Write the structure tokens for this entry.
Amino acid sequence: QVQLVESGGGSVQAGGSLRLSCAASGDISDVRCMRWFRQAPGKEREAVASIDRRGTTAYADSVKGRFTISQDYAFTRLYLQLNSLKPEDTAMYYCAATSGALGCAVSISQYWGRGTQVTVSS
């Protein structure tokens, strides 16, 4: 089993920055893709960024150029650098992991953290 714990959320003004962290533990040997999702009340969950074992990244258009996903220690630490934050970035941010050789080609994430709240004020 894989356990994911997010941290680093908080309240910032528009234009500010935050760095979210996700600590992964357990048997992560078969995890091939990690992602950050976000969900605001009344809105659908949105995949904002992904990274695979090779370091290939992908971003939602809404965050491209502002957010950066990265990892350290063989996927035991996942990060999301959020810059130039906008009020519409306000959401609960979740770390998620996908196991299997197909990596990020698989849309299902088997493991999820409980989330960390990001609030951006005008």
Summary: The first strand starts at residue 2 and ends at 7. The chain has no helices and eleven strands. The radius of gyration is 14 Å.
